[in-house]
Amino acid sequence: MTWRSPLALVRDALRGQRAREKDLRNLVSNLPYEGLEKGKQPNRHFAGNAIKTTKYTPLLFIPMNLFEQFHRLANIYFVGLAILNFVPVLNAFQPEVALIPICVIMSLTALKDAWEDFRRYQSDKKLNNTPCFIYSRKEKQFVERRWRDVRVGDFVRVECNEIVPADLLLMHTSDPHGMCYIETSNLDGETTLKQRRVVSSICISDPEFEPENFNSIIVCEKPNNNLNHFKCFVEKPDKEKVGAGIESLLLRGCTVRNTEHAIGFVVYAGHESKSMLNINESRYKRSKLERKLNIDVIFCVILLFTMCLIGAVGHYLWLEALPGVPPYLVPDSSGHLDSPSLSGFYMFFTMIILLQVLIPISLYLSIELVKIGQLFFITNDVDLYDADTNSRIQCKSLNITEDLGQIQYVFSDKTGTLTENKMVYRRCSVMGTEYPHKENAIRLAVLEGEETEENILFNQKTRPVKTGWSLDAEDKNSDDTHQHKRGGRRGKLSRGASSDAAFSSELETEVIPDRKLLQQISRAQSSSSSRGKIDPYLDFFLALAICNTVVVSMATAPRQRVRGFPHSTKTESPLDSLSTWMKKSATLCNIFTSCKRKPKRNRTFTEDSVIEEDHINTPVKTEGSGLQRSSLHASSQPNKLAITTDNLSYEAESPDEAALVHAAKAYGFILLARTPDSVTVRLPSGEELVFEVLDTLTFDSTRKRMSVLVRHPVTKEYVLYTKGADYAIMELLGTPYAEHLSGNQKSIAADTQYHLDCYAKEGLRTLCFAKKIVSEELYKSWSVNRQSALAAMENREELVMDSAVQLETNLSLLGATGIEDRLQESVPDTIMALREAGIQVWVLTGDKPETAVNIGYACRLLEEEDLVINMSCKNKLACTSILDCTLEEVRRYSADPRNVDTTQDISLVIDGRTLTMVLSSDLQDRFLELAKCCRSVLCCRVTPLQKSRVVKVVREKLEVMTLAVGDGANDVNMIQAADIGVGISGQEGMQAVMASDFAISRFKHLKKLVLVHGHWCYSRLANMIIYFFYKNVAYVNLLFWYQFFCGFSGTAMIDYWLMIFFNLFFTSLPPIMFGIMDKDVSAEMLMGVPELYRTGQGKGEYNFVTFWMSMLDAFYQSLVCFFIPYLTYQDSDIDVFTFGTPLNTISLFTILLHLSIEIKAWTWVHWVIMLGSVVVFFIVTLAYSGICVTCNPPSNPYWILQSQMADPMFYLLCIITTVVALLPRYTFHVLRNSIAPTPLLQARQLDRMDPCTRQQWIKEWRSFRGSGTVKRSRLSIPSSPTLETPVDIYPQSSTTSDIMGDEFTLNVTTENYQRPLHT
């Protein structure tokens, strides 16, 4: 290595910094520069691939750790006092003794930090030494190196099932289509396979790829932490630019699956890779209790300074009152005595040292230990364990467990949080005709009956076939079991299912076709073949099969980690399946017609893996009007292994797509293969069509739709298939098939919209499908714009979106689908319990209002007796008017003296557009005032940013404790904005879990987590902190009272070592045990009577009054513990330690018995620790008194306790003093519990009853509470100058204009709302 001057090194460092800070980076291959020194490497300025996550180095550990610990003011305070004690004129103890407590605590903390950092070092070392393959020009092949050797500009080869070592731009794969499949579970928790493709027109996927031939320049953006976006283009030697994005980037940490090997160019390495940039320390959250604690510590500091000031002034006055110089005032070496004023000044600091324990040094450490113990009990709670997913609750934040007991607002996502996010295909509307799939509803009812072994009411009545569809008629005849079996339990997988397969239960993957729709498809095939045009019905199912991102692979692919369903050797047509299910259900007909409808528990499924074994029966082959079994073999490929539906494996990024693909498959439109350039679909006739994929316009939250542009293999037309939200598709429609439609069929859009509204009322998730024929000229011109947008580095997202919007116009509507997403188990019960606990529940969802409201009623967020205010405004003026009118009515109601004992059952439903208006600065306060009067709020059509905005506004403006719960990446901002974030490990990956403070597997677990563990954690910790302050003040005041009798000289009547032992050993474990194990009320009572949770809300148990009451009690007890022994030994000849030893013993008994009064539930652990503390006190004190002869010269405590224990007066004094000290507190508890018992005390009394009697009491109490003791209110509809006659939000019939409204709508819904029943 050549020597370089310092100036050259500085110059090179500055160049490197400028290169790293540029918005664009120009990267070239390292191969031409292989073997040259570092200064000649073109990519030398960019980070290497070695990572370092440790905080310390062996040499600098001590100073860096001390610096870290001194960020806590308490450590600075106690170290400063220990240093003051080394000043001769200020010391109160032996200087070395004063250092012991703070040194012990800081040493334990340093050991913990060192162990954690050592574990990080071991992890870094293991990762950096992971082997990988890097291309070498000298070796002419890929050679094995370590991850730490990878540099930007290298070519890296990754084998199947290996982890990607750095961010690689994909150049070559073993797949002939240039595809690579990756699993991103290490990054976002998602185990679904994602497709990555090689950069187009750069490298041809030949069997042999030569990295040395790569001579292009890669221009990419500077590193950022966005895992979903990447801007890059490759500039060829001829200056042609080829754009590349995230679809060509392999992220560090991902795992290559189903691909033999992939070769990539390193663009980001080490700490600049996207995965490393996402490793940020979580936001430090301080609990509300901790903030209150810090305020009380300040009060204690003020109290300490006051006592020290009294001591300083008292010492000055005592010296001034002396007639002369007493012999015990020893002058310094020069014979000089300090003046009384100077001595009083010194005494101020001496008193601080003496009384320093008033600030509890061990409190913070004890709190940490208590929280660790609380987390242990939470994570090991069997009720919070989910056997289906084999997962238990995860507690990621140590410092906010007690906040769980003070929650006032809960903000919840809907899909995947309240619901299963496991989609079941239910209904569809094609070309304006609705197909209810009644036979499929029968199948679902049978499946539910098999799984739950419960009777299912299903009244089969023959009805005439109708040309139109009436939702009312469907509802009156309950043969449609789509009336939300949301309450049905989905806890077990279907027989034969693997618990590791995603979307693989019969309930989700099998669809029994609608008989009429099958016949229509049969006719459509015949007409299409005769006319040479594709019928809209066929187009609809082609859109279902094509317009998605579902990955198709064989069941024998490399990533085959689970076994699927046993496959049938016999192939059945959809009609055969229909007959089988009808025969099966017929045997239950007597059950269906004779049994009463019973509410059913919700269903849960346990699919951890994402592999989906496809076992649906093969679709039909249509000949004429008949339906026959189809061939499994493609006649066009006789020499290839036949592709059967049994060995297909579907991997979908969302369960919606999986449900739609299976629905298409049930009708014979089978998705067989997908490559970057083609999609293969088998038709019901058995013919396989290979569609050339020209482009895919991916889904985004702005457009709310996705499209696939293909070339039709039969007509050779350019066809754009689009699916998306109803409002996103309806506004883009042209004239649907007007050239060959006649009569009332031209109203397809209006009919479909009506069907969509009906679907939404039932709580079904809706999607619209449309198509467009694109001319060749339009495609060519659009393709040029599209490629330039993809290659742009500035505003790429906007340009790409504009290009998509440019093509998605004048669409022809094909139809719509309704998919059911069922409620999780016990969601209604959980929400009711939270509301009874005084918690306001808000649901924030992106669904349309009709769907959200239906789910709201199903989960009991909304009640039938509620007055539901629906706010949907198009402009701010209308929004202001409705807010003012509604608030005026609410205020008028509250001011009415007749409504003193009534509650307002008001619920608010608001859409995203209106929410944006009411969150503006001028309307924010009025909206929050209205929201406070509502017991539940339902926000629809909201974006992820709106979710976090709502949480922040409520938390900051109302100053309340908030909890947010969600399951997907769109909930991360909301979870992080709340005081407590709870993630649910569901179907949408683990982003929410990784960003949360607590992670659960089911929404129902929130009930026990909050109502039981939250209450316990807060109650235990609050009472422990109050006790800690009491204990320290009561003990320190003994020293303070003694100063009045020793001239305020800073002398202690208790040995210094025994004072240290008192807090470190004798009284340290009981409060920690109290904080971990005390149980004021049993879990059964807290779950059965949720109102008990209200005791922790607001100010809670730890407030200004309870704190100062404990302080006054501590002062009283210290007075009793000091002056009764003082008066007893007055005028005697005992020495100072003989007087202090009974004080120390009495103080121990008083403090421990005080805790005994506060303990609510005694266990053997309590007895062992309490009695053990007393035994340890006597053993240590006796041993210390027996061996310490000159421990504290000139005086010592030798044999003092032994002498005291031989004196009966010692025992009598301990008993009388302790009783007198604790008598007021004991009397207070007796009177309060007798005259005005708290709800918690009443609950404890019920706990003492036998379980049967207790349950009967709870039932009677709840029935009494709900029998009318609280009157229900009804608000009149507010009047407004701009408010027309309100209409029901769910009319019997509606059009698009009715739904949208002209200006705004204020809809007040009461119990007259017509909706399906839910259980």
From TrEMBL:
Bilayer-spanning residue ranges: 73-91, 97-115, 293-318, 345-367, 1024-1044, 1056-1077, 1107-1129, 1136-1155, 1167-1189, 1210-1228
Major subcellular location class: membrane
Domain P-type ATPase C-terminal span(s) in chain numbering: 993-1238
Region described as Disordered: spans on this chain: 468-507, 615-638
GO biological process: phospholipid translocation
Reactions mediated catalytically: a beta-D-glucosyl-(1<->1')-N-acylsphing-4-enine(out) + ATP + H2O = a beta-D-glucosyl-(1<->1')-N-acylsphing-4-enine(in) + ADP + phosphate + H(+); ATP + H2O + phospholipidSide 1 = ADP + phosphate + phospholipidSide 2
Compositionally skewed regions (Polar residues) per UniProt: 625-638
Subcellular localization(s) per the UniProt record: Endomembrane system; Endoplasmic reticulum membrane; Membrane
SUPFAM superfamilies the record matches: Calcium ATPase, transduction domain A, Calcium ATPase, transmembrane domain M, HAD-like, Metal cation-transporting ATPase, ATP-binding domain N
Coiled-coil annotated residue ranges, if any: none
GO molecular function: ATP binding; ATP hydrolysis activity; ATPase-coupled intramembrane lipid transporter activity; magnesium ion binding
Its EC number(s): 7.6.2.1
Positions annotated as active site in the UniProt record: D413 (4-aspartylphosphate intermediate)
Topology relative to the membrane: Multi-pass membrane protein
Cross-referenced Gene3D superfamilies: Calcium-transporting ATPase, cytoplasmic domain N, Calcium-transporting ATPase, cytoplasmic transduction domain A, Calcium-transporting ATPase, transmembrane domain, HAD superfamily/HAD-like
Chain positions recorded as Mg(2+) binding sites: D413, T415, D967, D971
Compositionally biased spans, kind Basic and acidic residues: 473-482
Stretches with biased composition (Basic residues): 483-493
Iron in keyword set: no
Cofactor: Mg(2+)
Keywords of the record: ATP-binding, Endoplasmic reticulum, Magnesium, Membrane, Metal-binding, Nucleotide-binding, Translocase, Transmembrane, Transmembrane helix
NCBIfam families linked to this entry: ATPase-Plipid, ATPase_P-type
Name of the molecule in the record: Phospholipid-transporting ATPase
Organism: Xyrichtys novacula (Pearly razorfish)
Top-level taxonomy: Eukaryota, Metazoa, Chordata, Craniata, Vertebrata
